[in-house]
Amino acid sequence: MDFFEKSVIELQKQRPIFHSEDDLKLALAFKIKEINPEFEIRLERPVELEMVNRNGMKTTVRAPIDIIVIDTYGNYYPIELKYKTKKTNTLFNEENYILTEHGAADVGRFSFRKDIFRIENYKLKNLNYKCGYVFILTNDKSYFEKNVFEKENIDKHFSFHNGVLLNRIDSSWNYSKIDKTKFTLNENNIWCNIQSKEHWTCKKQHFYKLDLLKDYKITWKNFSIVEKTNFKYCLIKIE
Hints:
Blueprint: H1 3-14, H2 21-35, E1 40-52, E2 58-70, E3 76-84, E4 88-92, E5 95-99, H3 105-125, E6 132-138, H4 141-144, E7 165-166, E8 184-185, E9 191-192, E10 216-217, E11 220-226, E12 229-238
Parallel strand pairs: 3-6
Antiparallel strand pairs: 1-2, 2-3, 4-5, 6-12, 7-10, 8-9, 11-12
C-alpha cells in the first residue's frame, strides 16, 4: 500500500463526508502531510499541457493540478480529484452538511477521463514524475452503478461504472444522439446549428480528444455511509 492509498483509508476514519471538493482536497492534503511530514505539498499548481481537439487542432493550456506531492528524493506525485454529489442534507458529529445536486453526469464522466489524460500528459513531460493518481468520491450511484454503454446516451463511451474496462481509445461522444434537424457537421468537423453555434460537446474542453496510454480497469470501493447516504470512490493509479 502506497502513501496515497494509506491516506485515503485513514481519511475515511475521520471524515466520511465533505462539504465540497475544496474541503475534500484540503483534508486529503493535510492527511498526506500528517502521515508523511517529510513530504512537500502543493495545491492548485499550474502546469502547461498540450491538448488535441477532435478536429486535429492542438492547443497548449495552462491548468492547475489539484495536489502535487514531492517526496524527499524530489519525485513528483500529481493528484487530480473529483467530488460529485447528489443533494443531501445530513448531520455528522454535530456538523450540518448541505450537499448540492451536481447533476450533469455526462460531463462528469468526460471529466474523469480528462483527468486521467492530464496526469498521463504530465507524466510524459516531467522527468521527476514518479506516480500519479485520479480520485473521485461520490454519493451519486449513477457513476458506479449505471452502465451507459448499454444505452444510447451521448456520453455512453465515457462510462466508468464498476467493473468496466476504460478503453485507451477515445470513441468520442455518441453523436448519433444529436438532433440532425438542428445540427449539421461543418467543414471543420464541428457540429453546429443553423446559427453556426457549436453543440456544447464541440466547445472548449469538451471537444478534446482523450486517447490514453493504456486501458484502465475500473473498481469502485466503499468509502462511507452517512445516514443511509452511501459514498463510494474510484482510484486510478498511473505509474
